[in-house]
Amino acid sequence: MAAPKTKLTPYQRRLFLFLSVATFFEGYDQIALTQILPELRADFGVDESAAGFMVAAINVGTILAYLLIRRADRWGRRRVLAITIAGYTLFSLLSGLAPNIWAFAAAQLMARIFLIGEWAISMVYAAELEAAPRERKLVLLGHHSTDGRTAARPFEQKGFKEVWYVVGGIDAWSTMDPSVPRY
Asked: CA spacing 20 to 30 A to 48: which of 41, 57, 97, 125?
């Protein structure tokens, strides 16, 4: 006998939408690589076969990210999330400064590991909000946006009493909370 179908709560529908959007933007990184690939091949003088191998090698980072994600259980999610944000930023920068195609591929492989790690840990945080006490302080970190009210509103509507939006990301938050390491 099949289990009765249950409908998603409004929160679960919003969470599904949020996670879908996050997944879409995670895919943007891969799409960006395929869009710039012709210019990379031309700039570095790489044939199509080598470029295909490079993309495959970069995508191995998705699998390797699992090793980093598992560290969150031992090191703490906050620390690993901060490491993934810093790592993705650093290796994205190094990708832009790469002197050759293989340095670019190595930097992109590392960036992919950190991006997938960041994405996965963010998904866990988002999913755990359902059971979170509404008295808990929520801190939303934004690197560039100044529209914190819009970002905070869904959490306030969900019943959270104290929602903070910090422009400047994790670095700005570390100036307010000494337990958050600076990078």
From this structure: 97
Instruction: Please state, in angstroms and rounded to a whole number, the distance separating the CA atoms of residues 136 and 141.
Output: 16
CA pair distance 154, 78, nearest whole angstrom: 22
Q: Which is nearest to 124 in space by CA: 180, 56, 69?
A: 69
How wide is the angle at C-alpha 56 spanned by C-alphas 116 and 46, nearest 5°? 125
**Count of C-beta atoms within a 10 Å radius of residue 156:** 13
What token pair was written down for 87?
A: 């790592």
Average pLDDT over residues 140-156: 68
User: Can you give the pTM of this predicted structure?
Assistant: 0.63
Residue 100 tokens read as 């050759």
Residue 142 has a pLDDT of 67
Predicted confidence (pLDDT) at residue 173 exceeds the cutoff of 60: yes
Task: Give the dihedral sign, CA 119/123/126/132.
Answer: negative
